[in-house]
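User: Design a sequence. Structure:
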């Protein structure tokens, strides 16, 4: 059976159905396989996103560097993203794109407010002072193209920091970066990690919660579903949920036990 085809026109209509238009400020996570065969590939998707928000809008994508060796130098200009798909690399390499300094959870941006990602100093990957705080304060929407909140909403980890959930803790990672002036520097980065023996985060209930509250804009794509929500609405709903139950987004204990067994810990 042939794959469904996503064209420039059909993708533009998809964005319109999600409520994305001129002047929009969007942080986009994506799973492009959910769109079947894409005429023009990731470049077309990037083109239509930028065209749709227009000169007054801004597109931000995650260009995370996950699993990099501690001695690797993070250069915002040249270091490729890891494990976040094709679209972020397409946006990152475009003329005029800007990228944040955090060597773990960094973002690339293009558009009128692209400089928003350059405001944080890069020393914390989540929580106060992070890219996520900057995007929230600038009034961005979260857009999940063909993926679920479980797959694409890293912002939820940011909310776990603010709620001080009991199954995660602060750790300090040592990284090396190349600053925008070309100088190399050592950097200590704060990261909110899963506690040993504790369950991992499970965000599978977030989508239904937002839908129940009428906050989740969802539109079917050829092989899945896309979602959009304002970061402010997600922020308020998420913190309210965690204030009532700090364990609401914790997974099952057997998931933690499996992780420990795999690491040789009993």
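Assistant: Done.
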């Amino acid at each position: 059976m042939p794959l469904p085809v996503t064209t420039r026109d059909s993708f533009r209509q998809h964005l319109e159905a999600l409520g994305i238009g001129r002047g929009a400020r969007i942080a986009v996570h994506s799973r492009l396989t959910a769109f079947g065969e894409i005429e023009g590939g990731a470049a077309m998707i990037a083109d239509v996103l930028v065209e749709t928000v227009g000169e007054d809008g801004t597109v931000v994508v995650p260009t995370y560097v996950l699993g990099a060796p501690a001695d690797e130098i993070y250069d915002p200009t040249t270091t490729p993203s890891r494990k976040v798909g094709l679209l972020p690399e397409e946006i990152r390499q475009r003329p005029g794109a800007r990228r944040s300094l955090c060597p773990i959870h960094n973002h690339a941006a293009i558009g009128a407010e692209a400089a928003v990602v350059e405001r944080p100093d890069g020393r914390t990957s989540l929580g106060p002072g992070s890219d996520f705080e900057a995007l929230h304060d600038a009034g961005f929407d979260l857009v999940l193209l063909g993926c679920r909140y479980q797959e694409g909403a890293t912002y939820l980890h940011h909310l776990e920091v603010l709620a001080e959930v009991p199954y995660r803790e602060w750790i300090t990672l040592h990284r090396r970066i190349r600053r925008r002036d070309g100088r190399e520097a050592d950097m200590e980065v704060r990261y909110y990690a899963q506690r040993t023996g504790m369950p991992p985060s499970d965000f599978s209930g977030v989508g239904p919660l937002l839908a129940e509250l009428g906050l989740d804009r969802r539109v079917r794509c050829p092989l899945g579903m896309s979602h959009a929500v304002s970061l402010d609405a997600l922020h308020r709903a998420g913190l309210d949920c965690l204030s009532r139950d700090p364990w609401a987004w914790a997974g099952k204990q057997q998931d933690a036990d499996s992780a420990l067994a795999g690491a040789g810990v009993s």
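Residues 217 and 228 are 5 Å apart (CA to CA). DSSP finds nine helices and twelve strands in the chain.
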